[in-house]
């Protein structure tokens, strides 16, 4: 199968104060997020002058991918479009069509299965193509990469450097706390063709990162950034509640590692670096937040490797992965169907 382009598909974020509300409306349209929650999240963005770091992180990743492709002789143009903010994917697909692209691969900035992390991006692609019309390029999503060494190793190194900042005399009472975006329990139950895939993949990534970074330390997987109406159950415990439980049980020091994400965007710099850090301080816990892959060369090279394994007629032989969960290129049509909303 011949491909003539790659597109980086991101979440997107506002870059001016006046963009914050329209961005949040795009994110939450039809999703039953109460206005109080929206106002609260708008505050988090305004705290940073209305600028989410995520678009610049997408730009940096785009530049790094282009440089890596060029340095390794992969001659494919790389485009960038977002789900929720400019450049919107439909505009990018229009440009691709105008440039004569007919068949492209999409690298999505989420490693996992599940509705928000995988299926919704495929819906974004379908909607953008429908908006462009019958001559829109075909766009196929690259596979989930939760256990790829290019994702796991940068997270593990980040955990190691975070640990170096903690008091070694307290190692016996130090713990790793991995976090990912909480989702509604019903969405987690529907993730993947047999359910539970988002959580199962996160547990595997946590296991792999912990084993590589600090096999002697206990670790947990907990959740952050809960949204939605209060009566709808979401995955728990929340990272802040978990820190309280750890402090109560004698933990003195934590490394918090956001394995659910690929860059230090607003959910990281607000929910962890601001809120969870504050919680830890109140509890008297030593707290260091571990970094995310960002533009780590191994992560950037992973994008090229994912493309290479898809282009190769016998791509399975090129696959690099550390875990054991089932893996596929193309999701079955039934997976991650949206939870029915009340
Ligand atoms: C699984 C998952 C990921 C990881 C996969 C991936 O990375 O794609 C993720 C990433 C992100 N989520 C982000 C921001 C937001 N998420 C929201 C709301 C929601 N997220 C959900 C899930 C996820 N979200 C869900 C189930 C909702 C409820 C509404 C709905 O059913 O869709 C809201 C609404 C307000 C609120 O928080 O209530 C905002 C502002 C940003 C950008 C940060 C920045 O600007 O730097 C990023 C990368
Ligand atoms: Fe989110």
Automatic annotation (TrEMBL):
Catalysed reaction equations from the record: Fe-coproporphyrin III + 2 H(+) = coproporphyrin III + Fe(2+)
Any one GO cellular component localisation term in the record: cytoplasm
Subcellular location(s) per record: Cytoplasm
Positions with a binding annotation for Fe-coproporphyrin III: 52, 121
Enzyme class: lyase
Source domain of life: Bacteria
GO molecular function: ferrochelatase activity; metal ion binding
One Pfam family hit: Ferrochelatase
Keyword Glycoprotein: no
Record's keyword terms, sorted: Cytoplasm, Heme biosynthesis, Iron, Lyase, Metal-binding, Porphyrin biosynthesis
E.C. code: 4.99.1.9
Chain positions recorded as Fe(2+) binding sites: 181, 267
Coiled-coil features, chain-numbered ranges: none
Entry's Gene Ontology BP terms: heme biosynthetic process
CDD domains: Ferrochelatase_C, Ferrochelatase_N
Function: Involved in coproporphyrin-dependent heme b biosynthesis. Catalyzes the insertion of ferrous iron into coproporphyrin III to form Fe-coproporphyrin III.
Protein name: Coproporphyrin III ferrochelatase
Source lineage: Bacteria, Bacillati, Actinomycetota, Actinomycetes, Micromonosporales
